[in-house]
Write a structure and sequence with these properties.
Shape: globular
Structural class: alpha/beta
Number of strands: 18
Largest sheet: 9 strands, parallel
Strand content: 15-25%
CATH architecture of the largest domain: Alpha-Beta Barrel
Number of domains: 2
Helix content: 25-40%
CATH superfamily of the largest domain: Metal-dependent hydrolases
């Protein structure tokens, strides 16, 4: 009699365990959707399901504005003498002012399905779109957050929802602009939103908080939210030092650079995530790393917006926790983010394999970056354990060995090929919490999700 298949028991010929490829790996999923057992060098049991390719842990997308998926590719024309982050932002607000909760759900569900196909299994949603288009408050203050949580559940991706403190238009502008009216929150609002999201029975949905930026929140409010945050679980994220104008304005208003101000005025620790930090000085990087704060770099968005390049080597050499995010979602697979992160450094420094460190036994660029973003992404999302380890959520991707860029690659260099030669998502399957969400490279709800997304896009773009 043939052995009865055990759906909780998986086996991979090769899997990324402990920072490298291990052979013949047995993976057992517990009833809670976490790894109950991970054992390399085990022959395939008769009752195990054999996975159809090499296995990599899922990656956390540590910075997302889901509604901006409706704007991706829609700002690539210039009508004036100058186009930069600030002109892009003004155009982006046009979508932010129109999108409804129903449209947000459709856009986010499509985005999250695409992120899964790109190898991400969890996303940190930097959520500042709170109110009705006219700026009035919804009867249910969680309505936009619920739309995101429902989209994550529908797609099957994990979510850390980060309601955002957003009070003013700039250091010298104590009120919001009219086109920022949907974003308005106080410290009390953010705490209430966090509490409300924690109370939801929403599966793999977690909650933290965020501060939009130092320019968008009064120093007293930043300090108050930081003080509250010291007594609760979850991460706290902030946009910081993304633009040189922002840095200059911070120095003019406070006498300090942005990360320097944070280091002096709040108790930075490992739950703090510094998003972008593109224009951080050597001293600021050292201070943030010393405090244990993480940095979230968003290479494709930062390139799209002309932000500049981070001092990646210094962040790496200081052993700071490093995560990546797709932010405005012009790209939605993590190998592309790592590729551009490294290529930006090569173009700037006129060198190759910049992130590699053979002097400490890390000669493979992709390996060093991948392992750093696995650990940093877990911290950014609020996880204690991540990857193919017992107790971590059973998230992983299965590589398609027939994909362009991977076909024929030596097994020991598959990660290198994935990051630097695969020009499209190369995952055959993607699993979250022990459930398969992507099969043969396609999300299981792809057709219905895409239909709702196209309808939402027609509605949004017929208005302007």
């Amino acid at each position: 009699m043939a052995a009865v298949n055990d759906p909780s028991l998986l086996w991979a010929q090769d899997a990324w365990v402990g920072g490298g490829w291990r052979a013949r790996v047995l993976l057992r999923i517990g009833a809670d959707g976490r790894w109950a057992d991970v054992q390399p060098d085990v022959p395939a049991p008769a009752q195990a399901s054999v996975l159809p390719g090499p296995v990599l842990p899922g990656v956390v997308n540590a910075h997302s504005h889901a509604f901006q998926r409706a704007f991706a590719g829609m700002a690539e024309r210039r009508s004036g003498a100058m186009d930069d982050f600030w002109t892009w932002r003004d155009r982006m607000y046009g979508v932010a002012l129109r999108i409804s909760p129903e449209q947000l759900h459709a856009v986010a569900a499509q985005l999250y399905a695409e992120l899964l196909a790109g190898g991400y299994t969890h996303v940190c949603e930097f959520h500042y779109l709170q109110h009705a288009p006219d700026g009035s408050r919804y009867a249910d203050p969680l309505v936009m957050g619920r739309a995101l949580a429902r989209a994550a559940q529908d797609a099957g991706i994990g979510l850390t929802l980060l309601p955002v403190l957003y009070e003013r238009a700039g250091f010298r502008q104590p009120a919001l602009r009219d086109d920022q009216r949907r974003f308005a929150t106080s410290v009390e609002d953010v705490i209430a939103l966090n509490t409300g999201m924690r109370a939801l029975d929403a599966g793999s949905v977690m909650a933290g908080v965020a501060i939009h930026s130092l320019r968008a929140a009064a120093s007293e409010s930043v300090a108050a939210l930081a003080d509250w945050h010291r007594h609760v679980d979850g991460p706290i994220h902030i946009h910081i030092a993304e633009q040189t104008t922002e840095v200059d304005e911070c120095v003019a208003a406070t006498g300090l650079r942005p990360i320097e101000w944070l280091d002096r005025h709040v108790a930075l620790d490992s739950r703090w995530q510094l998003v972008h930090a593109t224009h951080a000085t050597e001293a600021e990087i050292e201070a943030a790393a010393r405090r244990g704060a993480g940095v979230v770099i968003c290479p494709t968005t930062e390139a799209n917006l002309g932000d500049g390049l981070p001092d990646l080597l210094r962040w790496l050499d200081q052993r700071a926790m490093l995560a990546i995010g797709s932010d405005s979602h012009v790209t939605r697979n993590w190998p592309a983010e790592l590729r551009l992160l490294e290529y930006g450094q090569r173009l700037q420094l006129h060198r190759r394999n910049v992130a590699a460190a053979p002097e400490i036994g890390l000669d493979a660029t992709a390996t060093r970056l991948f392992d750093r973003v696995l650990a940093g992404g877990a911290m950014a999302a609020g996880f204690d354990a991540w990857g193919l380890v017992e107790g971590a959520r059973a998230d992983f991707g299965v590589l398609d060995l027939a994909a362009p860029g991977l076909l024929g690659a030596p097994p020991s260099q598959l990660l290198d090929a994935l990051v630097f030669a695969a020009d499209a998502p190369a995952f055959r399957e993607v699993w979250v919490a022990g459930q398969r969400r992507v099969v043969d490279g396609h999300h299981l709800q792809q057709a219905s999700t895409a239909g709702a997304f196209v309808q939402a896009m027609r509605e949004l773009w017929s208005q302007g």
